[in-house]
Amino acid sequence: MIKQLILKFKTRSNLKKRVNPNMTDYANAEKIAIVVSDQFNESEITNSIVKELKKDGKETSILFFCHDIKKQSTELPHFANNDISLFGQMNNEELDFFLSQNYDFALCFDNSQHYLIDYIFSQVKAKCRIGNMNLSRKQLFDMMVQNDSTEQQLIKEVLKYLKMIKPHGQK
Predict the structure, then answer these.
(1) Cα dist. 130→3, 5, 68, 93 in Å?
(2) Domains of the chain
(3) What pLDDT is stored for residue 115 in this prediction?
């Protein structure tokens, strides 16, 4: 409980310090970060969105959050509660590497609103952050996509709107 309070405070602090750099349009974007809750189907995410982004020539980095330590069997980079200390220090090399990179876009697929996902996502160095619609998390995202149906539909909607991002003044 104390960890949750401390990290929620640090998340708000991270977001207040955030400076919005000039956003890149999708066509010129090179690197995209994806943070996913284990409540989403891992193969669905990796097989559809990553495949689509790579087809467009985008480099992707993906990081899974495991709510349950027993689910840490994923071969993809992941983190769990025990990888972040009471005061927010990282105890996971994959997590350190993920957060050290600069991204053009960061996508968050999470319906759990878990404080650790918010904490990590607040530290991602991205020009634009995109997530599913949730008014309680509006400070976390630059763009939110409303979709109440399947994971696959959410992925399609995010990709659709991501690809619509163009330079200012271009139609």
Answers:
(1) 26, 24, 25, 25
(2) 2-164 (3.40.50)
(3) 93
